[in-house]
């Protein structure tokens, strides 16, 4: 028996919004420590890794490890049937071929349940090596989303160059070029608005705009985003899922031919 | 000119 409950469905809605552009289907691996999802996008350029810890749920029970293959568009349809403040309970029997989403209104005057067929997905699991990153940048997630959106107008790629002084995002194309420099903030009173840079060595890498913009669909989850970079390895873009865990996106860099 | 690499160039199948 698997059962996981969240007091408000809005968190699950936001998590789905954050992954549905990149993935059509995904396997949710459930164990007593929580729910894990790891999947590449169709083009194998990026990888999504989602961790939702069992102790972050309002109720969590997982008697046996189960993997639930779900179509994310179908899951979105079902979650649309829930009000943001409805309690959501995800339930599945061991060896079940369906998963049930139960929504309960706060006043307990409306209870609905939706069963969704599970899929057998043959997904590859990749081993992600531990990396000591040369640069780790923390900045407001809204600012990062704004920069990715703005620079996408200029070209298909965004250069991210990090030094002690700050981070420079740049793009160029037919209409011209764009540069946005973000400096480390000295005001630490408002942590959510701060920009911090931990740098061992300067790094400059180039990434596809399209993927960065897909990652920013996670912005509503967290006021801050963390970007981790080293030469010639994938960029890691991490958002916290409050009280539950995190979502990490790995993006392969563009490299010299 | 830069070309897009694949995530599988960096992370290997378990």
Describe the structure.
Chain A has a nine-stranded antiparallel beta sheet. Chain A starts with a strand and ends with a strand. Chain A is 14% helix and 47% strand. The model of chain A has no long low-confidence stretch (mean pLDDT 95). Chain A has 257 residues and is mostly beta strands. Chain A is elongated, with a radius of gyration of 20 Å. With 14 residues, chain B is mostly beta strands. Helix content of chain B is 0%, strand content 36%. Chain B contains no helices and two strands. Chain B has strands at residues 2-4, 12-13. Chain B is rod-shaped. The termini of chain B are far apart. Chain A binds chain B through residues 40, 44-47, 124-129, 157, 206, 208, 233-234, 250-257, and chain B through 1-14. Strand 10 (126-127) of chain A pairs antiparallel with strand 2 (12-13) of chain B, so a sheet runs across the interface.
Percent range for β-strand residues of chain A:
over 45%
Q: Which chains make the largest contact?
A: A-B, 24 and 14 residues
- Average of pLDDT of chain B: 90
Rg measurement of chain B, Å: 9 Å
- What spatial order of strands do you see in the largest sheet of chain A? 6-2-3-4-19-18-17-11-15
Separation of the first and last Cα atoms of chain A? 51 Å
- Number of separate strands of chain B: 2
Strand composition percent of chain B: 35-45%
What is the overall number of helices of chain A?
4
**Share of residues in helices of chain B:** under 10%
Terminal CA distance of chain B reads 32 Å
Overall geometric form of chain A: elongated
Q: Specify the helix fraction band of chain A.
A: 10-25%
Oligomer: heterodimer
Order of helices and strands of chain A: EHEEEEEHEEEEEHEEEEEHEEEE
Number of helix segments of chain B? 0
**Rg of chain A computed from alpha carbons, rounded to a whole number of angstroms:** 20 Å
Number of separate strands of chain A: 20
For the largest beta-sheet of chain B, the strand count, sense and barrel status come to: none
Shape of chain B: rod-shaped
